Amino acid sequence: MELLELYEKISKGENLHTEFKEILPDNETLARAIVCFANTDGGQIIIGISDKKKMVGLESSDAGLLRIDDVAFNRCEPPITILAETIKVEDKTILIVNVPRGTQRPYRTKSGVYYIRSGNRCRQASWEEVRRLYQTSESIYFDECPIPQSAITDIDLDYFKSFVKKYIGLATEEGLLENYMLNLKILTEEKKPTVAGMLFFGKKPQIFMPESKIITAYISGKDISIPPSDKKDIIGKIEEIIDSTIKFLRLYLKQTHRIEGFKPEIYPEIPEDVLREGLVNAIAHRDYTIMASIRLFIFEDRVEIITPGKLPDSVTLESMKIGVSHTLRNPKIYNFLYKIGMVTDLGSGVYRMMKKMKDLGREIELLLTENEFIVKIPRGVK
Predict the structure, then answer these.
(1) I want to staple 367 with a disulfide (CB 3.0 to 4.6 A). Which of 131, 223, 325, 374 is the partner?
(2) pLDDT at residue 344 above 80?
């Protein structure tokens, strides 16, 4: 930094990209300031400037430079690469810590706290802000991120044991379960349940992620403006939600019985595998950073499944229709669904839904709005 630029920054005062420190702060305070800038838009910590914008300088800069580098590497997670420099102003030494906008956001201090810069101050990030940082980062998928305020005791261990035994075929002794959860990214190293872990194995997932429910409604008409005749918020683990939603659909979708040979055959107006595919697709690929629930409406002439969020990167409506889309927004959730046989790992779910309905003489409609993906499945009501 040139001397003239330093004077300009001092005259402007603290702002989104600049913070003054009169003395070299303790390690935790320094880590907090570095994390703040890395999680936001980058900036500079200028040390040796008082609150009244007076240059007081530092006695020793060499030890300070070493300590700052150590804090950025060892007390910030992931480690943050900073550039520290000094400027001599008469007999005073001013230390400038240049913190770039992080490429592995979100960052946190060693104590596990996430901070962001807001105006001219540093503050703890809200859970929603942390979610957004994970979503925009290329270093980690959001469904791997830890859920604050949760603990390993919020995981249903009996359910997890059953899952491990049935779908993975591993021993289920108590001493092994925690190690399995770490390897499957159900828990973080700090023993915090992840988003995927909570949604699939949590005792009560909606306590921590209330938007993870499915809002279902039966509407005796063709328009959303008509009050629903029946409405239910479906909660629980992902597998429970799928089963309960299918049961709700069965209540209002008709079936016909035909005699083929000596036995009656049941023909649902919408094949259940089509409904299940649409439902599982919504759960597997929705944007969990958006504070909105999946909605499923049964109208007189159609079933609509409305999923929060745009399509994942590189996925288009056209690529979905021909079965060549397999970009995963939530790979851990998808992997658990794969293990219980709910998805095929081929990216052809929507294509198979559309083909099956076309064979019945009906066309599925796909729509994409600013913040939602909508699937309209026509009913076979005469």
Answers:
(1) 374
(2) no
